[in-house]
Amino acid sequence: MSVLVTGGLGYIGSHTCVELMNAGAEVVVVDNLYNCKKSSYDRIKALVGRDFKFYECDIRDAEGLNKIFENEDIDSVIHFAGLKAVGESVQKPLEYFDNNVNGTLVLLDVMRKHGCKKIVFSSSATVYGMNNVSPLTEDMQVGGVTNPYGRTKYMIECILQDLCVSDKEWSVCLLRYFNPIGAHKSGTMGEDPNGIPNNLMPYITQVAIGKREKLTVYGDDYDTHDGTGVRDYIHVVDLALGHLKAVEKVRGENGLFIYNLGTGIGYSVLDVVKAFEKASGVEISYQIGPRRAGDIATCYSDPGKALNELGWKAERDIEEMCEDSWRWQSQNPTGYPD
Ligand code: NAD
Ligand code: UD1
Question: Are 28 and 100 in contact (CB under 8 A)?
Fold first, then answer.
């Protein structure tokens, strides 16, 4: 029995593939290489010491997906494939709805045709919107999202919930990620954004290697301990390990399950800058800029439900997240090779 991992050569997918295979699982990856390099496949293989199936295919290609299901013995899916840049989604809403929502519909239809009804979906803390107060719990109201990217995540959550109501054979796990950072301990896998990074940690690491001059801190007048935005950063390997528990869950039980994957601890932008400086020994130049549209002051999880029901808990602290991000970036200043 194999797990099909869509988007499995991307940042979170690649780390999840390594942990799945280290735990003895069979993995089949589908990725259209839109936001990753093929060399990510070689790095995964080198780390686990064995081969695995990779199909270069778009999840909107029903025929291509059909063939994969015909060729492989797939019993469950982890669905990472998607576009994720908030700003770009505002410029290109149709592309985002097509890729993320339509792509998921095509995938679900093909899964149903092949009697595969177990799926773990990459959702985001963004579905909690602007109005809930942290710590965020899974039973809070969702949907007050402010951009097309966030809306695709919310819409896919709704589609999957409706599917579970319509057919009791489905087993769906919605994982709401907080802020994944860090990289594999080996320094051979990590986050490799295209162009100017939108997110905090890749921006900091690019300042540290001299690729960017200075970080702009988006606002220092929030109602937080130092005025800068507070988030729940989680090590990507902890996040990956959460997926192993989620796959076990959907393999064992039918129904809908929703979990936050976070640490439950909030760090400000300046806390992260300081932690990174300590871990790397490199000083990070920064300037204070205006707030970024759509940002909230504070966002962190209550991760208790995942602990109680999945037995999962994030183990790696902010120091380790910074050390591992730095090891990846300093050993691969230009990211994955072409
Ligand atoms: P990523 O871009 O590194 O990985 C996504 C992968 O999916 C890429 O390799 C890309 O080539 C592939 N892909 C995209 N569209 C595809 C399609 N139509 N067909 C086949 N492959 C396709 O992103 P990531 O950071 O690893 O995120 C994985 C998932 O987690 C995404 O759905 C993202 O929205 C979600 N998520 C990420 C974060 C984060 O901060 N990284 C936070 C919350 C949720
Ligand atoms: C952002 C997205 C969110 C997405 C998540 C993970 C927005 C509004 N939200 O979340 O939908 O799920 O990424 O991909 O884009 N910061 C700076 N300077 C920078 C970059 C970031 O000060 O150059 C600050 C931000 O204001 C924020 C914190 O760092 O306070 C974290 O930012 P980021 O990494 O972009 O994550 P989120 O804003 O939490």
Answer: no
Q: Which two structure tokens, joined as six digits, stand for 72? A: 């492989």
Read off the amino acid at residue 159: I
Condensed to tens digits (0 to 9), the pLDDT of residues 251-285 reads 999 999 999 999 999 999 999 999 999 999 999 99
Ligand 2 proximity of 124 Cβ (cutoff 6 Å)? yes
Other residues' Cβ atoms within 10 Å of the Cβ of residue 8: 28
Query: What token pair was written down for 1?
Result: 């029995």
Ligand 2 atom nearest residue 228's Cα: 30
Atom of ligand 1 nearest to the CA of 126: 43
Which residues pair with residue 181 across a beta bridge? 235
Q: What gap in Å lies between CA 254 and CA 71, rounded to an integer?
A: 25
Q: Does the annotation count 149 as an active-site position?
A: yes
User: Residues near ligand 1 with C-beta < 6 Å?
Assistant: 6-7, 9-13, 31-36, 58-60, 80-84, 99, 103, 122, 124, 177, 180
Which pTM does this prediction carry? 0.98
The Cα 303–Cα 180 span in angstroms is 14
State if residue 212 touches ligand 2 by the CB under 6 angstroms criterion: no
86-125 confidence digits (pLDDT tens):
999 999 999 999 999 999 999 999 999 999 999 999 999 9
**Ligand approaching nearest to the C-alpha of 214:** 2
> What pLDDT is stored for residue 146 in this prediction?
87
Closest ligand to residue 89's CA: 2
d(CA 1, CA 274): 45
What pLDDT sits at residue 300?
98
Cα–Cα distances in angstroms (integers) from residue 53 to residues 31, 42, 46, 91, 100, in the given order: 11, 12, 14, 35, 23
CA of 81 to the centre of ligand 1 (A): 5
Question: Cis peptide leading into 337, omega within 30 of 0?
Answer: no
Q: Would you mind telling me the total number of residues written for the chain in this entry?
A: 338
What span, in angstroms and rounded, lies between the C-alpha atoms of 222 and 218?
10
Q: What integer is the mean pLDDT of 189-211? A: 96
Token digits for 77? 């899916």
